[in-house]
Structure formats: structure tokens, C-alpha cells
Amino acid sequence: xxxxxxxxxxxxxxxxxxxxxxxxxxxxxxxxxxxxxxxxxxxxxxxxxxxxxxxxxxxxxxxxxxxxxxxxxxxxxxxxxxxxxxxxxxxxxxxxxxxxxxxxxxxxxxxxxxxxxxxxxxxxxxxxxxxxxxxxxxxxxxxxxxxxxxxxxxxxxxxxxxxxxxxxxxxxxxxxxxxxxxxxxxxxxxxxxxxxxxxxxxxxxxxxxxxxxxxxxxxxxxxxxxxxxxxxxxxxxxxxxxxxxxxxxxxxxxxxxxxxxxxxxxxxxxxxxxxxxxxxxxxxxxxxxxxxxxxxxxxxxxxxxxxxxxxxxxxxxxxxxxxxxxxxxxxxxxxxxxxxxxxxxxxxxxxxxxxxxxxxxxxxxxxxxxxxxxxxxxxxxxxxxxxxxxxxxxxxxxxxxxxxxxxxxxxxxxxxxxxxxxxxxxxxxxxxxxxxxxxxxxxxxxxxxxxxxxxxxxxxxxxxxxxxxxxxxxxxxxxxxx
Amino acid sequence: xxxxxxxxxxxxxxxxxxxxxxxxxxxxxxxxxxxxxxxxxxxxxxxxxxxxxxxxxxxxxxxxxxxxxxxxxxxxxxxxxxxxxxxxxxxxxxxxxxxxxxxxxxxxxxxxxxxxxxxxxxxxxxxxxxxxxxxxxxxxxxxxxxxxxxxxxxxxxxxxxxxxxxxxxxxxxxxxxxxxxxxxxxxxxxxxxxxxxxxxxxxxxxxxxxxxxxxxxxxxxxxxxxxxxxxxxxxxxxxxxxxxxxxxxxxxxxxxxxxxxxxxxxxxxxxxxxxxxxxxxxxxxxxxxxxxxxxxxxxxxxxxxxxxxxxxxxxxxxxxxxxxxxxxxxxxxxxxxxxxxxxxxxxxxxxxxxxxxxxxxxxxxxxxxxxxxxxxxxxxxxxxxxxxxxxxxxxxxxxxxxxxxxxxxxxxxxxxxxxxxxxxxxxxxxxxxxxxxxxxxxxxxxxxxxxxxxxxxxxxxxxxxxxxxxxxxxxxxxxxxx
Lengths: 482, 482
Description:
By secondary structure, chain A is an alpha+beta fold. Chain A has 17 helices and 18 strands. Chain A has a seven-stranded antiparallel β-sheet with strand order 15-12-14-13-17-18-16, sandwiched between helices. Chain A has a five-stranded antiparallel β-sheet with strand order 5-6-10-8-9. The longest helix of chain A is centred in the C-terminal third of the chain and has 22 residues, at about 400-425. Chain A is globular and about 75 Å long. The two termini of chain A are about 30 Å apart. The model of chain A has no long low-confidence stretch (mean pLDDT about 95). Chains A and B meet through strand 9 and helix 17 of A and strand 9 and helix 17 of B.
């Protein structure tokens, strides 16, 4: 350790040797994001075991103006947890803070530390007949702190909201090391600006989330998964509105899938087959659940509703999963789309959202605009219709070389997609956040008022710009870290 | 108009004579809060008719460093909309911006301007068979902008949340006049810090809310109101948990009332009588609703649940309102408590909250502490048990002179109440906000981290401190307007 780097000794004294890693080999897994798109370097990785240790580390970092990159499971999608290449940063891993502090099933609350892995949380709650109604592919690595800092979504947002709706309280350490204790779950609290909501989706740029009080719901009694066919995205929307008005409290999933995506899955993913015999233009995956034993059987709920929908010509055909295995098979089709599309050839993927009522129109109108402007491309749009969340893939023209495609077209097609989203009143980031990958576009497409506020808040709370610099907030030129 | 006050001419040019009032007589109703506790003076009252006019006014105010006091219905509880006595401010009334821009029943959204009065909103939605599930005593004057800026509550928070949960999008003008257009109702939007949540409960200190997209729910089909008796606050809590677990989706009201408060109402409020024959220590008002015609009849829901509760000894007795008139009579008892208590003699009223699970304990433990420390006082606690929201009244000792009582005791009793609230992990403001009346206590009882963040945000977004100075944020000494 260089003698002039006294702050490293101070940090080592705080966390002890178990929480201090300098060797490149030991740090390597945490220097690259999981999709392999961003790689950085760091002076060291610090892993505090307590909120107080986190506070002490930030105090030292702030005094010495050391950039701090908070990290949870390192499974983010936008490079938000990867240090830059300057080699001046430290990684602050929250993974050692992995205690569930308390579970109160009667209050439907759980208090857990930032490093608790989502799957562990699910398992701990299942023992108490509770569940945390948010899940996603990376649940085996994603941590509570990361889920909060990225305001994670998933397939249950329709009924339970994003992470933001599930956070009842937060504990965080500010850049100067002071501890914000907002863990108390108060249903009514009018003591000024809601600070909790700044940390949710804040991507670690205002401080470090160290713990949270999360809302839980009763464990599921059972569920029924259905597959239906419709002629258009508009029809899918009509079906969604119909189901939502009739079963608002048990409709937990509503995903739309175009014929092209289904075909990709059937072609590339082993052990998949189409739930319906005939070919259809659009498909819908529906999940109905119950979490009270005396509530209506979800199977009879969806059976009746789909029968009515068929009578009213809202759907062309439908089938119910006959078993839990078949339910999983239906979901596997939905969850394999990205993988199948990748096997199909290079494609640009966009995580965008529009108002729910405008989603069908957006899909209908945006796709031909993109395909016309970039001949040979093919657009596939699927996603969570109940949330207005479109996963929009633009597939490369047949024969396009991957490197050429990415370098030549990405910088043209993505801005066009984003322009169309903004014109539809939407957001260029639905689920994944801004991180490194969308910062330039956020700056290009935000109003002066929005940028002014983002910058003002960032600069006010983190005046030395030590918290995850270069992520999320496009600072004005001339400001440090821009 | 003095020649040197060119900015007044500029503002007059923006809003025209209809939107510009200088005469003290014309301004008088808006210079005092409705409870008559705060009175200020102002140079003029500006009433813009559009968002653009609001923007133009703020630009001029910011350039000339003129303090701006935004005002809606002027029915707030903490002096948050009353100018100070310096006579240097302008009142910015949003009451002319009273258009409902659009109602979309199928999307369950309404877009309305800040000056729309709550009752008008209720009426406009009723025509579309929708409702806005928030109401309060001042609904005939309270405006949407004021409800948002104070994060208003009410008796339906249990099921539908406070104003914060009902705001899907916001349009606001920042202190520099720039317009933040966040009206699009996006279910998923991860573009950085959630700016909407800063304006909700921001008390006009960061800018002016000019319009909002609000969530609506289906109009009620019917409701059933019940009155039950329990032996203690703990029993009331057990009953609450029982009902919430059995009818989570139709329980819309759960209010607890101690025997002393019921007695006050029966003594002082004409045309009231006790719903139950016998005397009981605690009373509970329960409202069960349905907003789908094919949902279970609320009368049979509550009848069955209360029968089970009686069997299990969760309640001592209960009765159902036999008619809508009787339902209103039950609610009248609850809504008259404050008035009845005032007729009883002087009392200090506190609007506080604690975690729901801790409310019974707080009531049990705080009351004797207060009564012991201030002999002769009597504490009455009632309120929204489902929200942890306690209305805590400390009645003066018999024979206490009102002026003496207020001056001698208020400054001792209220801090004690607040200390007890903080010790219970609660909030010194549940519904009413901070405004002028709780700013000193907020400063005394907030952690450094909370104060640092409140101040940093305020100073960053409103560097000239023109927006409602002296309200909500206790600025550090030396900062302007502190």
C-alpha cells in the first residue's frame, strides 16, 4: 500500500481484512458488468458489514474525494455498478450486509439489509407464509439495495407496482457519512420532501442504501396461467381492459407476444411448443392468482372471463395451463424471447415505456417507421402491456455483420426509437435505469426543467461528486465528473 | 403603482387586470389562514389563468427576488399558504386555473389544473361513473394543487393511500419559470430521481404545481357502515387486522373513538345519539364498500365478519347502519369530535402518526405520561387506526384560562407529545404538513441527515429562496429566509 494513500489504511481499519480487497484477480468479477459491455478498474473493493462501517467509509471517501461505486449483485443492465476506467474509484460492495433484521407477517413488513439476495428474501418469507411480490431473472444475485437503487420492475408490476411501491422505509448513508434513518413504516408522514423516493431509482448517486423496510403480501394459494390469441395489439389492449375491470385484484400478469417472437422461441429454444394449435398474429399470456384460501378459484375466474371474451370476439382462441408444469412452460416461452431473438441474429434491444392506453398505437406506428427508415430491419415488440412497458427489438437486416451493424446502426436506430417514445409521451427507460448506457440520450431528450432539477439535486446532496460519478445524471459541462 | 416597481407592471401585463389585485380589502380573505391563527401582508395577489402565465410570473419574481406564496383554497392547517408580515411577498393564487383538461374513465385517469376544487372534481367524475377516492372537510374550497402540495390524507387513506398514491403525473413551474411537464401517466419510468414525489408534500417551496394527472376508481355501488364496541385500543387493533385480512379490498374506513370523545359529541352536538345502548370504553367505526356490482354485498360482508368477531370475543357489541341516513349519522359522530372537544374547553390538538402496529401501544403509554406531567390535563386520542394516524387532544385542566393555558402550556406540552412520537418511531406531522406551525419542531427533532437533505434540495432548486420562504424547510441560520 503506497504510503501516501493514508485513506486506504483508514478504510482497512474500518472494515478489517475480510472487507478489503485490492488484488485485481479478486476484484475481476466485479469490474465488468454481467453482460460484458462495460469494464472498469478500481483501487480497491470495500465490503462493510454494518451501516456504521458504511458511514465511516463514506466519510473517509468524502474527505479524500475518492469516487465510490456502490454495488449489489452486479446484475444491472446499464453499467450502473461498474467503475470507470480511471482506476481512481473504490467499489463499495454491500454484499456482506445480508441480514434480514425482522419479519412481521402480521404487519406485512420485512426489514432487511441492502445485501440480501432477492431469492433469499423469497425463501425467508415463504417460511412465514408471506411473499415479496417482485421477481426477475437475476433473482439469485440481485440484492435488495440494487433493486431499490434501480427501482426494479419485473412481471408483477401490474398488480404490485415497481420496487418504489414496495419500499415502506429506507436507511441510507449520505455522501458525508451521515446516516438517514427512515426505516419506520409510516403510512402518513408529512415532514417535507419525501427523501425515500430520491433513493429509489437513484442509482447510488446520492448515497448508499444500507437497509429497507419492504412490504410483503400473503403467500400465493394458487394461480392459473392462460394463453390467448388475438388479432392485433389493439385487441390485446381491449382484452387487458376487460380482464382488469373484472378481476382487478387477481390479475397478476398480462404479457403480449407477437407471432414472430413465438416463432423464434419455438425455433431456437429446446422443449418449447405452441400452446395453441393454429397460427395467430398476437398472443397473450395471462396469470390469475389468489392469495386468500376463501377467494374465488383462479381457474374458474379466468375460465369464465375468457369464455365471455370469446363470445364478445375479444379473443380468437385460448387455453389454460392444465398443471403447474404447463404454467411454467407458458412462462418459459415469454421468458425465452430475448435469448431466442439473440440466436436469430444481431438485434438492438430497447427498454422503453409509454402510457398504457397508448401502447398498442405505439407498437403499430413505431414499427413501420423504423423498418422504413432502415430497410431490411425487422421490429419485434413484446412486453408487459399492463405497465405500458415495451421491449422493442430491432433486428439487423439479413446478412448484416455484427460489428458493422452495431457500430453503424446503433447510433442511428436507438435515437430514432427514443424520439418516437418521447413523441408518444413515454420514457426512454422503463425498467433498467440510465446508468452509463443512456446518459447521453437522457441529456438529449430531457427538458431544461428536468435536467436542471436532476443536476441541482445531485450537486446539492453530493457536492464533491463522489457517489457513482458518471452514472445517471448528465452533469453540465464544466461540472466535475460530467 | 410606484414607478420603481417595474416588475409589478410586468406581472400585470402577464395576467391582465382580472388576475391582479392590490387593494387590501380585496386581498384580505387570503391574508389570513382559515383558522385565524396566521395573518400576513402582501404587495399583490396574482391569479394566472394558464401554465404559461404562471411561468412568466415566476420568471419575473425570480429576477427581482420577490417572495411568492402559492395558494389554493386557503384551507390548510399549518399556515403554509399565508404570507409573512414583511409585506414583501406576492400571493400566487391558482384558483383561476380550474379546468379539468380530460377525463379518461377507461384509463381511470383525470388531468386537471391546480385550481380545480375537490368537490367539483368529485362531481365531474361522478358523471362518468368514476370517483376520486380522497375527501375531507374542506372539499368545497380545497384545490387539487393544495391537496398535492400538502399530500392530503382523509378517511380513505386506508384503502387508497394519501394524495401521493393518487398522483400519476405532475406539471409544475420551477422558481426560474421553466416548466416541468411530467403529466404523462407512466407506470414504469426510470429516468432518474422521481421529481413528482418532490412536489407532492413540497408545500410550494420548490415551485408551483399547475396541473396533475390523478388516478380515479370506479364509482361506489354501495357501502355499509358499522359501529362496534371494544374494550381497549389493543382490541381495536386486533379487530382491524382481522377485518383487513378478510376484506382487504373493501375495507375503506376504520376509525377509533374513545368513550370520552363519544360523550363529548353526545353532549355538545345536536341530533346525535349513541349507536349502541350500553356504555363501552372504545368504539370503532367501520366502512365496507363495493365498487363492482357483482362483488359481494358489503352488508353481508361486514355482518358475517362482525358475527365471527363477536364469537371470538374481538368485539363486545356491534350494529349496522340500517340506512344511508344512519350511515351518515355514524360518520357525523366521528367528524364532530373536534368541534365537540372545543365546546368542552380549551385543548391542544396534535396531528401525529406512528407505525400502524404501534398505535395502540402509543395511545396507552403516551396518555398517562402527559397527564402525569401536566396534572389536571386529560388526553383524548382518536383517529384513523389503519394509517397509524392519531389525533391527540390534550384538554386543559378544569378552570384553566384559555390565554394562560395556551401561552403557558402549549410550548411545554407539544414538545413532550412530539418527543413521545419520535421515541415511537413516528412523525410529528401525519396529515397537515409543516408550514409555519411545525417548522421549529421539525428542526429540533430531525436528524442531521434529514435536515441536510431538506436544506440542500431547497437551496439547490430555489437558490434565491423565493418560493414560499419561511415554510416547511428550517434553513440554517445565515441562509436567507431562515
